[in-house]
Amino acid sequence: MTSTRVAAAARAGERRLRVAMFSPVAPIRSGISAYLADLLPLLPEVWDIDVFTDVDVEPDPRGLARVGSPAPCFPHPEFGARNAAEPYDLNVYQVGNSTARTYMLEYVTEHPGLLVLHDGVIHPGRIGAATAAGTIQQYRKITETCRGDIGRAVGHLVAGGLGGPAIYSTFPMCEDLVGASLATAMHGELACGWLRGLVPSARVVSLAHWRSVDVADDLRAAWRHRLGDPDDVVVGSFGNIGPERRLDRALYALADIDTGRLWRLAVVGSVDERLGLAALAAELGIGDRVRWYEGLGDADFVAVMAAVDLAINLRYPPARASSGVLHQLLQLGVPTLISDVVHWREYPEEAVARIPPGPDEVEDKSLRVSLARWIVNPKARAAAARAGRDWAARHISPQRMRETYVEAVEEALGAAASGRQGSGSL
User: Fold this and answer.
1) Same domain for 242 and 100?
2) Are residues 204 and 323 in the same domain?
3) Among 7, 15, 261, 377, whose Cα sits 20 to 30 Å from the Cα of 387?
4) Contact indicator for 202, 423 with CB cutoff of 8 Å
5) CB of 213 within 8 A of CB of 302?
6) Is 50 in contact with 23 (CB distance < 8 Å)?
7) What angle do CA 113, 114, 116 make, to 5 degrees?
8) CATH code for position 242
9) For the chain, what is the domain count?
10) Which domain holds residue 224?
11) Are the C-beta atoms of residues 81 and 52 closer than 8 Å to each other?
12) Do residues 411 and 358 both lie within one domain?
């Protein structure tokens, strides 16, 4: 066995590694930048981690915390020179469906490493970036690489303006990146099973998705007082709102609920103005019961989560993504309504209410029934809270997140040591 293979065989968590971590960082408002802030302190101290991020960003050291001192952070164009001067043992790519961060995808294919897919469906980001840059022909090459003749037809349709959620969900366009990578990780075994079916030859590893929920009691109490009276039942929606969050359907459902208990809705995050949700709430006669909070810092964001009685976290069409928000809610013991999508069926029935996606009348009825049950029944909410906290303690603890990251890094290093770079090639 060569010295390289001996080194790769050693447990990754016990030996010094130089790791290049590609990710958005605070103060960039991104679920992945918040995720990175939780992740970095958990990774083994013997790993020397350099973070590579967007250009023209002044990183917040609090989002780069490690034991001792923050991880060094550089604009991504500096990677080439730093890697040439002292090669990294492994590159780790935190990839989501962001048009702003498609620069990262070139590194994924040119410098294969561990690909962490926060969204399995990255088709919208890729066509959005190609459209903005005027590189539609390059996009069409990507679709053909991912899906052959079918991909060629899909690229033709989308380039002609006929794209949309149905096509994007059916053709995720991550296959070329998975095929180029030493290993690919997703959050949750069900998501990984989907990816293995999509690229059968790929090395796929499941990660635990823990998120911090630390909050001061006085801050939580202050937000509870701000959100409503003590007897009100406060419903929360957390994270940026686009059409896939189905908040319009939730507004229709809430407007139809007459239980004798006064509910309030707190929408925390930016809202796509094109959806006209504030106007819809006013039209439905519930505008005074909905409050909108945009731009909250992390501490206040978690404090509002801890202050609500239940939450709505719908996602349809799905991007095959884990939800950091949902995992925070489960840790906090907040009963949550979720879309009934396959990769979210790992959560216990007692902790969540599954809402079948569309048609609208079916979804609306399910939303009304589930919301009304939890609004009027504090015992049912308490049982759901216990089930959520118990599941989270077993499956998404900080220790599990660290362990699964070490396993994923070992898998990637093992692929490199055995000469199986690009083992998932299409």
Assistant:
1) no
2) no
3) 261
4) yes
5) yes
6) no
7) 140
8) 3.40.50.2000
9) 2
10) 217-395
11) no
12) no
CA gap 164, 147 in Å, rounded: 17
Same domain (yes/no): 199, 237:
no
Instruction: Show the 3-state SS of the chain.
Output: CCHHHHHHHCCHHHCCEEEEEECCCCCCCCHHHHHHHHHHHHCCCCEEEEEEECCCCCCCHHHHCCCCCCCCEEEHHHHHHHHHHCCCCEEEEEECCCHHHCHHHHHHHHCCCEEEECECCCHHHHHHHHHHHCCHHHHHHHHHHHHHHHHHHHHHHHHHHHCCHHHHHHCCCCHHHHHHCCEEEEECHHHHHHHHHHCCCCCEEEECCCCCCCCCHHHHHHHHHHHCCCCCEEEEEECCECHHHCHHHHHHHHHCCCCCCCEEEEEECCECHHHCHHHHHHHCCCHHHEEEECCCCHHHHHHHHHHCCEEEECCCCCCCECCHHHHHHHHHCCCEEEECCHHHCCCCCCCEEEECCCCHHHHHHHHHHHHHHHHHCHHHHHHHHHHHHHHHHHHCCHHHHHHHHHHHHHHHHHHHHCCCCCCCCC
**Does residue 265 sit in the same domain as residue 281?**
yes
Same domain, 181 and 260: no
**Contacts within 8 Å (CB) and 24+ apart, 240-243:** 240/269, 240/270, 240/271, 240/272, 241/267, 241/269, 241/270, 241/271, 241/272, 241/275, 241/277, 242/272, 242/275, 243/272, 243/275
Residues 249 and 364 in one domain: yes
The residues with which 292 forms a beta bridge, in sequence order, are 267
